[in-house]
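Researcher: I'd like a candidate sequence for this fold, 169 residues long. If you have to choose between options at a position, lean toward the conservative one.
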């Protein structure tokens, strides 16, 4: 998770507005799932796209799964014209989601996020309920396989939050 730590720190240092989704969010909610990349849902506001493009330039982001000789201009306008991107960077793989299946856009994810403090910064993380919805909506085998664990974590979380009926009597 060391590279993910560095990715999160650089995003925070550039003041990028984003929410952690995907495997890192699952891990922060207690999943034993190991992930090798950082998935974020990002604000598409102009100033944020500028900050995000600066981060991506600083870590030499390149499109993942595309031949290196394919031209790609890393700037805010390119990010604005696209929506979801998968990158290889000097700090590891990073996926940018302008829209998260089963959740919506940044504002929707923000309303359904919790805050974690780590690595000297505060980060927004997609709520466990919405993470489950996103995994279910994505429908990929790897997402479906983690659902039972995430649902068990949610059940445990809800039991911890429920008032104790025994003390009410």
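Model: Candidate sequence:
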């Amino acid at each position: 998770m060391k590279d993910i730590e560095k990715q999160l720190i650089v995003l925070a240092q550039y003041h990028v507005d984003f929410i952690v989704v995907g495997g890192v969010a699952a891990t922060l909610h207690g999943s034993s799932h190991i992930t090798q990349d950082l998935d974020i849902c990002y604000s598409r506001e102009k100033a944020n796209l500028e900050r995000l493009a600066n981060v991506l330039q600083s870590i030499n982001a390149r499109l993942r799964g595309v031949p290196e000789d394919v031209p790609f201009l890393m700037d805010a306008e390119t990010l604005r014209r696209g929506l979801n991107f998968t990158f290889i960077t000097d700090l590891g793989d990073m996926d940018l989601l302008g829209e998260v299946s089963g959740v919506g856009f940044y504002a929707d994810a923000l309303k359904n996020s919790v805050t974690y403090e780590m690595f000297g910064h505060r980060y927004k993380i997609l709520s466990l309920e919405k993470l489950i919805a996103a995994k279910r909506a994505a429908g990929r085998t790897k997402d479906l396989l983690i659902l039972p664990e995430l649902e068990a974590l949610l059940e445990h979380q809800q039991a911890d939050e429920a008032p104790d009926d025994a003390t009410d009597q």
